[in-house]
Amino acid sequence: MQTILNVNDLSVNFDTSQGLIKAVDNISFSIKKGECLGIAGESGSGKTQTFFSITGILSDNGTATGIADFNDVDLLKLTEKELSKIRGKKIGFIFQDPMTSLTPHMNIGNQLIEVSMIHKKNTKNDALKKAKEVLDIVKLPRIENLLKKYPHELSGGMRQRVMIGISLMCDPLFIIADEPTTALDVTTQKEILKIFNDLKKYKDITIALISHDIGVISEVSDTILIMNEGRIIEKGNCKEVLTSPKHEYTKHLLSCVPEWMK
Ligand SMILES: Nc1ncnc2c1ncn2[C@@H]1O[C@H](COP(=O)(O)OP(=O)(O)OP(=O)(O)O)[C@@H](O)[C@H]1O
Ligand SMILES: [Mg+2]
Q1: pLDDT tens digits for 104-148?
Q2: Fewer Cβ in 10 A, N or C end of the chain?
Q3: Atom number in ligand 1 closest to CA 12
């Protein structure tokens, strides 16, 4: 299988009034096309900043060094203008809280349509057709009605489905989902994870799934990274790492998962 993302010696530092903070410390990993990489680790371990750096959305006080080859193009070397053409088009980002990522005063239809009109220069009609297609993929019912609704009129699960829909508008090769189910109840969580599994299976989309919840990761991921204090503690096949962890930290993380979830 072809490697879609190859990260080498990636470090992320933040310049703060208290000095330099090393958020990501010289990590290397790769993701193959069509596979899901799960990224697990406690809060503050560097999961989010790893992917913020790759997609060029670090805070102003952050700097990234290293190599992040996406289809053989080093994302860390691109200008903001070049990166913005890849972000949202070839790479989709799904955040934890869909309420803050959706625009409150814009209806769902327009939020979906806007993405493909801007990035793909699609006509409104083509964009609308695509919007209906993606809402069907994320299994949202009564699409015509939904397109006219505003984010506050939807449940958390529906908003997250819309967010996934938005990320699919430009047929991305790669989706980064950062704690996509953390704010959701367990049943809705399962439904969203099923969508990720379907995207992998039927659309051959590559996924990076960030979660502090090993249970969530194990539902979708083929491979896994365990992060702690900005470093990769353990990586490999997801089932193997979770069934026979080699490092104490991974064992510790697993010991926090309730018995019935294993
Ligand atoms: N703008 C910033 N300035 C200074 N430090 C920052 C900044 N953004 C992030 N950090 C620090 O970088 C480290 C890694 O943060 P990151 O957001 O990657 O954690 P995480 O693993 O995603 O945690 P969580 O599970 O809570 O989302 C943390 O110590 C965090 O405080
Ligand atoms: Mg995070």
Answers
A1: 999 999 999 998 898 888 899 999 999 999 999 999 989 999 999
A2: N
A3: 12
The pLDDT of residue 206 is 97
pTM of the model: 0.94
CA 208 to ligand 2 centroid distance, Å:
13
Reduced to 3 states, what is the DSSP secondary structure of residue 12? strand
Query: What is the pLDDT confidence band of residue 260, given thresholds at 50, 70 and 90?
Result: low
- Sheet containing strand 62-70, edge to edge, reads 19-32, 3-16, 62-70, 73-74
DSSP for 60-80?
Answer: TTEEEEEEEEETTEEGGGS-H
Query: Is residue 135 within 8 Å of residue 129, measured between CB atoms?
Result: no
Residue 49: helix, strand or coil by DSSP? helix
Over the stretch 151-182, which tens digit does the pLDDT of each residue have? 999 999 999 999 999 999 999 999 999 999 98
Pocket of ligand 1 (CB under 6 A): 14, 16, 21, 23, 41, 43-49, 59, 61-62, 212
Q: Tell me how crowded residue 163 is: count the other CB atoms within 10 A of its CB.
A: 26
Separation between Cα atoms, residue 19 and residue 32, nearest integer Å? 37
Q: Which ligand is nearest to the CA of 46?
A: 1
CB atoms within 10 A of CB 248: 9
